[in-house]
Specification:
Blueprint: E1 5-8, E2 23-31, E3 34-37, H1 42-47, H2 52-58, E4 68-72, E5 81-86, H3 98-111, E6 117-120, H4 127-137, E7 155-158, H5 166-191, H6 199-213, E8 216-220, H7 222-228, H8 231-237, E9 245-252, E10 259-264, E11 266-270, H9 290-305, E12 310-320, E13 332-334, E14 340-342, H10 350-362, E15 368-373, H11 377-383, E16 389-392, H12 394-407, E17 412-413, H13 418-421, E18 431-432, H14 441-450, E19 459-463, E20 469-470, E21 481-482, H15 487-500
Parallel strand pairs: 1-7, 2-5, 2-6, 6-7, 10-12, 10-15, 11-12, 14-18, 15-19, 16-17
Antiparallel strand pairs: 2-3, 4-5, 8-9, 9-12, 13-14, 16-19, 20-21
The structure holds ligand BES, manganese (II) ion and zinc ion (ZN).
Length: 501
């Protein structure tokens, strides 16, 4: 894993043109007659004789969101290159929101691969957003390349905003750095291919990350899972030669304000099992452990930032494979806690491993239960590949959705329609794992999970099937592959709970 180093620049605004860096990033805004310069670019413009906007326009720049235009400084600045990053049209109130700054900084960082150091002036608009965007846009995963090509951007110096104190700025930067590093941890886990990341190796990696961060860790192996009756995890993991695990991480501040249980789906590869998936795009199922990666990364973050909370991650790990030892459609599983489930489709495996993990996590009597998973293709059908579906107890669900939107990860509150619940009734068992029809597939999965949450416990389910893994082109601060969603939503939520309870 690499993310660029972040540092608060010691350069004064007046001295930007003489900063010792390889590139300077400035912002452009989409004006009515061409690109306009954003705050922070004044000195570069002065060094270029006040012609920056005109030169950019002649190079075809418009200032539209995520546009990047590079310009040689030809001796006018110490840096050899100015990169103009588009922020798009200003918001209705004339301002430029945090997410625009994040995306512009991210697009700039991607474009600067091969560059050692850059001075970013977008941070004068929003320091935290520019820092997060630059770090995440500069992320690279080259573990499996013989020739990694251009090294990613090495270091980003961020120009301080005009208001606030240096102490305040340092605190903002520290949080942004920690958040970006946690997102990178999640991305690394998602990007590691399934031949190297299976339940046992995932558990080992989680343990070593936890040890390094001084976080408690506990791993249940197959024997322990059997002894304690984790029927969902054992059922799903039964078809693989690489047996399942359950991992728990726990961080606690000395006087925690609240106790938060995080649960994340950890299917290290999802073939569908006996109800096997079609070949096309099955490789995307390397991302089916994104929820697990996100909650582990979030506990490490909570420890690093010392949130005044107790935060645990409970992660069921299994590989869903077809084989002579697989569970079958028609099987009835006895889940942890005793509920029985008739399996009608072995490809609806996530809810089975999660149910076990949620019941276990609730034994610790948390104040909030937060579960996230790449749970349904129906999430993609309903909301596309950038908007998580957020379900759960209504008040808490809406609080989480609001925070998800502010984080830049997006997310939209979705209902759990009562009329679909009956479709999960089983002829044999307490519950079936699918409805037998396609309608509202994301919501039906949410209703299934609700059966395993105690009444009155505020809970939320974030379905990130699409948003966790970018199968398209890079955009903003998001490259191809693992995105780290929903780490930043979870981070925002923990900080909100730390503040407001
Ligand atoms: N892991 C998949 C969901 C998924 C789909 C994640 C696309 C990422 C991208 C999940 O286990 C699954 O297979 N769900 C089934 C459920 C169905 C059988 C009720 C689905 O969505 O088709
Ligand atoms: Mn599946
Ligand atoms: Zn799955």
């Amino acid at each position: 894993m690499t993310v660029p180093k972040l540092a608060l620049s010691t350069t004064k605004v007046e001295a930007v043109a003489s900063a010792r860096v390889d590139a300077i990033v400035i912002g452009t805004v989409q004006g009515t007659d061409g690109p306009e310069l954003a705050a922070g670019s004044e000195q570069v413009d002065a060094a270029l004789g006040g012609q920056l906007a005109g030169v950019l326009a002649s190079l075809g720049a418009t200032g539209k969101a995520e546009e990047t235009v590079k310009l040689p400084t030809l001796g006018s600045c110490r840096a050899g290159v100015v990169l103009a990053a588009g922020l798009g049209k200003p918001d209705e109130d004339g301002g430029i929101g945090a997410e625009r700054v994040r995306r512009a900084a991210g697009a700039a960082a991607r474009e600067l691969a091969g560059t050692k150091t850059a001075l970013c002036t977008l941070s004068t608009l929003d320091l935290g957003a520019a820092a997060e965007g630059a770090a995440l846009g500069g992320y690279a995963f080259t573990e499996y390349k013989s020739d990694p090509g251009n090294p990613p951007l090495g270091k980003v110096e961020l120009l301080a905003p005009p208001d606030g104190t240096t102490r305040g700025h340092r605190a903002v930067l520290k949080a942004a750095t920690a958040i970006a590093e946690s997102v990178a941890i999640a991305r690394d886990l998602v990007n590691t291919p399934p031949n190297d990341l299976f339940p046992g190796s995932f558990a080992d990696r989680a343990s070593s990350l936890a040890h390094d961060a001084g976080v408690d860790v506990e791993v249940l192996d197959e024997k322990a899972l059997r002894r304690k009756g984790f029927g969902g995890i054992l059922g799903v993991g039964g078809g693989s030669a690489r047996p399942p695990r359950l991992v728990r991480l726990r961080y606690a501040a000395s006087k925690p304000r609240k106790k938060v249980a995080l649960i994340g789906k950890g299917i290290t590869f999802d073939t569908g099992g006996i109800s096997i998936k079609p070949a096309a795009n099955m490789d995307h199922m390397t991302s089916d452990m994104s929820g697990a990666a996100a909650v582990i990364a979030t506990v490490l973050l909570a420890a690093k930032l010392g949130y005044p909370l107790e935060v645990s991650a409970t992660v069921p790990l299994a590989e869903n494979m077809p084989s002579a030892t697989s569970y079958r459609p028609g099987d009835v599983l006895t889940m942890y806690g005793g509920k029985t489930v008739e399996v009608l489709n072995t490809d609806a495996e996530g809810r089975l491993v999660l149910a076990d993990a949620m019941v276990l996590a609730a034994e610790q009597e948390p104040d909030y239960l937060i579960e996230t998973s790449t749970l349904t293709g129906a999430q993609l059908v309903a909301l596309g590949n950038r908007t998580p579906g957020i379900m759960g107890s209504e008040e808490f669900r809406d609080r989480v959705a609001e925070i998800a939107q502010r984080s830049g990860e997006g997310g939209w509150p979705m209902p759990l329609p009562e009329e679909l619940r009956g479709d999960l009734d089983s002829r044999l068992a307490d519950l079936a794992n699918v409805t037998g029809h396609r309608w509202g597939g994301m919501l039906a999965a949410g209703l299934f999970l609700r059966e395993f949450v105690a009444d009155g416990l505020p809970w939320v389910h974030l379905d990130v099937a699409g948003p966790a893994f970018n199968t398209g082109s890079p955009w903003g601060y998001t490259g191809k592959g693992g995105t780290g969603v929903p780490v930043r939503t979870l981070a925002g939520l923990l900080s909100d709970i730390a503040e407001h309870g």
